[in-house]
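Budget justification note: compute hours in this period were largely spent on complex prediction jobs such as the one shown. Inputs:
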Amino acid sequence: MQFMSDNAARVHPQVWAAMQAADAPDSPYDNDALSRRLDGLFADLFGRPCTVLWTATGTSANCLALAPMVQPHGGVVCHREAHIEMDEAGAPGFYLHGAKLMLADGAGAKVSPETIRAVIDPIRDDVHQVQPHAISITQASEYGLSYRPAEVAAIGALAKERGLGLHMDGARFANAVAFHGCTPDEACGSGAVQALSFGFVKNGGMGSEAIVFFEPGMSDMVRYRRKRAGHLQSKGRFLAAQIIAMVENDLWLANARAANAAAQELGTACGGRLMYPVEANELFVTMTAAEREALRAQGFSFYDWGADAARLVTAWSTEPAHVTALARAISAL
Amino acid sequence: MQFMSDNAARVHPQVWAAMQAADAPDSPYDNDALSRRLDGLFADLFGRPCTVLWTATGTSANCLALAPMVQPHGGVVCHREAHIEMDEAGAPGFYLHGAKLMLADGAGAKVSPETIRAVIDPIRDDVHQVQPHAISITQASEYGLSYRPAEVAAIGALAKERGLGLHMDGARFANAVAFHGCTPDEACGSGAVQALSFGFVKNGGMGSEAIVFFEPGMSDMVRYRRKRAGHLQSKGRFLAAQIIAMVENDLWLANARAANAAAQELGTACGGRLMYPVEANELFVTMTAAEREALRAQGFSFYDWGADAARLVTAWSTEPAHVTALARAISAL
Amino acid sequence: MQFMSDNAARVHPQVWAAMQAADAPDSPYDNDALSRRLDGLFADLFGRPCTVLWTATGTSANCLALAPMVQPHGGVVCHREAHIEMDEAGAPGFYLHGAKLMLADGAGAKVSPETIRAVIDPIRDDVHQVQPHAISITQASEYGLSYRPAEVAAIGALAKERGLGLHMDGARFANAVAFHGCTPDEACGSGAVQALSFGFVKNGGMGSEAIVFFEPGMSDMVRYRRKRAGHLQSKGRFLAAQIIAMVENDLWLANARAANAAAQELGTACGGRLMYPVEANELFVTMTAAEREALRAQGFSFYDWGADAARLVTAWSTEPAHVTALARAISAL
Amino acid sequence: MQFMSDNAARVHPQVWAAMQAADAPDSPYDNDALSRRLDGLFADLFGRPCTVLWTATGTSANCLALAPMVQPHGGVVCHREAHIEMDEAGAPGFYLHGAKLMLADGAGAKVSPETIRAVIDPIRDDVHQVQPHAISITQASEYGLSYRPAEVAAIGALAKERGLGLHMDGARFANAVAFHGCTPDEACGSGAVQALSFGFVKNGGMGSEAIVFFEPGMSDMVRYRRKRAGHLQSKGRFLAAQIIAMVENDLWLANARAANAAAQELGTACGGRLMYPVEANELFVTMTAAEREALRAQGFSFYDWGADAARLVTAWSTEPAHVTALARAISAL
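Corresponding output:
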């Protein structure tokens, strides 16, 4: 019974079906009929014009999304536990040609206008210090917290005031939208975000994420950067097909709701053990080594989180029976 | 009837089957059981120890393969019509942090020890000029010519003499092996090549190429570079599955033989129109605009190659009836 | 008797005097009174507004001048024997983060609208090929030829038409201006050039070149790039002092005239041996090994230029007696 | 009466004299007689073999020194207030092609084995996290504290144990040696440091720092990197001359002793106001705005250090009368 990672989850049958339907000759790269549908599909979803590029991974999505906002001599403000800082092997430094990540604080891996200002205000306006060019926030955060629409909007207002770009790492964007019951556009602060990495791989996809640019012109240079990074797959129609399958009929939302519901069920069982409120599909739970051992002995797999806690992750495909079993097992600890 | 690109070809049913068989939870990234099989699989295939990394595209495969050979201040000797020079959007400059491509001549986009020496011998051994660090050759070449094992070995001997790395862009490696009827190892000059980009996408795969390192230690740093480039897919088991399906039971070879046979049939029909011998699955054919128009009117699609020629590409899935039809149509021009 | 390089020439006494006059405490970096005079000084010299940054070397001047024009995924069209291609150790690849030099032909290392078009016109307007972002020309060229004002203007018109930046490597800009007897602005095509590397080191300076930006805003980001490249010297007042000494009272022009006159005297003696007209302070002269040996035996030092020629370079400080002696010796060969 | 920066200090007369003596034709770049003396000069000074390259600035010295130790996908552990992190405009990210600075704590901007371990021990040994490749320490630190020889040796032992390079930013190395009365080699932990940026500009030079490599082979690639960064000045003999003048007859030490003595005199006057012990030529002094105002009214110039403190810097050329005057003025506050 697997609660280790939503990356380990299965590919949704509708995604498989869409990929197989795409297996007919078409133009290579992103000149196929499916890839050309993406802009319109997301414009409908967000209710505002946008351009959309597919790429295989969240890391490349984040870095390519930041590229038009950040010069090599600039910086990106993000939380000190952000995925781009902790888990992408220095990819932003590579893609942004040496630009610097500027680390902000905030409970639950969420930044705020206050914690961002604490980073950027002390920077002298001279050529000796790296100047911030953009802000990157994670929706839902690395601790499973989801920014409220108003919180994103407030960060966006600060970004605008300071002339900074705003990027959202939406590896679990679907879970945040599902949690808040808001629209996708609201989850982006109603126009505050200029570039969104919209994740599908953790939510039923195989290997395709969408980079959504709301700022006109940004995607123009990113098309070159994507190819230059070796991410313009020649059979790109299979990436477009995955995304379309996820967006059409709101499969992305249904999957996220399933994962979130499983997380809520577990959260109720965890009670006071919870280190953070459950606002997506991840739980961070205080638990002794003996308790974790006991759960593993019952067949549950998950990651330790430091010495005294566990991380539990649900996915669209987590079996309800497994969830209920784990919830009972935790209650019984 | 499509003769535009092997990139537009279908995914082989055995590849589909292997991918679907992989759709069970396993460890993410490349810690799954399938990814761990690759080293052994290719060691058997080549008859020498090697380490193997998957990546989604030929461009990333080439650049990651070159990374351990080339310092940012060095250069890579390649043909002036090589894919890395002409068609990868400057990816080597990105992945190699500004390293320079040094362009050599040679008929049919094949370099030789002579044309390589013509590039590197005039370089002064001082700090004002970029020094070569590696050689990259394409097997089969951009004009569909396949290096003989002895030709690769001779280039390898030069590389060794000058202390240069040797990389092979094997986007159509299968076609070259099939054409020569040699072993994979012989097609690499029997140990001359240190890093091989072994292509599968054009030959029945979906989105997975193998980087094969024959030099101990090279893959260690490339594992970091692959992640840093956003090419470590979280559901990597699907990439490993594609490669295994292609290599097991020699599907790669069967597919290449089919594509080559189709190319030979067309080549016979083209006769004196052929600009280069047909040694893989690409044909470059002298043809007037009117002739091309006539063929297109009969339902054949292909790329123009300059003003007076056409490029025809066959694939594993090109239907024999289409091949025969095109052969007849060309003969009838 | 030294004719090897103008880099080996002495520092002009007026430059020494200005440096010593600058040896009083002032603000560090470029906040001193001298550095702040540069914009106005060059605006007067060129008759148009500009911003000016000092840097120690021609290589850093060229690369920093190109930085605001060229994105990492773009290219710079230059002559295939341009200094930035042949003699800067790949610095453009470093400073421009992997951007590509695109090599054009042209007699005497001069490009023209025709040879530039021959490079850029075949580039497909798609993401697979690096797109040109700028043109760089050398005034005077690597073979001592000086672009006519109209030639620069014509290249500028092409640049404008294609949306490309135009940079001039003016390591020997002074010699070109002196040769043509034109204004500095005319030597830049009367507004065609957006960024000029104005060289002083070969012309009586010690270690200071001026980067002159005629395009508003370009210098803003280059100030950061200069610091980031470690070229913002803390005692920058000594670099500013050198430039001011060279520009005030037209020392730069007087020095260039002296060097050019010496070159003309030698040119007359060389007669039919000249490989190129003498339009600056460099001569490329057909000469057998035995003849070169004979000259060296008489105490003249210079570089071989391939197997059958010599390169002779004059400088502001070349002694007239040495020039006359070499002219006679060549005539007597 | 200037106590703002040692960067604003004058150039020592012996340095001027040596530069002028170098003003005769010699081979360009670093092929001149003076540049070739440096290796031997520093081998004598340190009592161990080394290779030495000059460069104009501390920023380029630091970054070039780190280049052979740090791959683009690696990291450099340094103090979070280190000059390379705070004041070099992201130069390490540029020179090291995106490598990451990893920020350690420590009182007075000094790191220790403990604070370094606190940074590197939590890094997972997998490809998702940037791995440390080197450590960089500043001697004397950004707060004017000098590492004891045993402290450097202990950091070196940790570096060796973990396979990390060790770099020392010695912008004020002379002040540290003078303070401890140790040998230069002891100040480097008796062989612990592999590459040292030995600063002269703040200590009586004009624009020349020495990069000293104690590790055989490291300088080979840095020669290329220096040229590629535009730091190989064509009249390099003037940079070598400065360094030789500073090292011969121990001018560097005499100058540092003078600056340190001035700092000690001020330190005594500051008494309990001192935020850090005075171990070099910088003082950080608690002082109200009104007190600073009072000092400035008496003609003393210096930088504020936050809202409640001042930074005072002495130099080799600070006039004793000014020092005494400032000491008295502080005592009288």
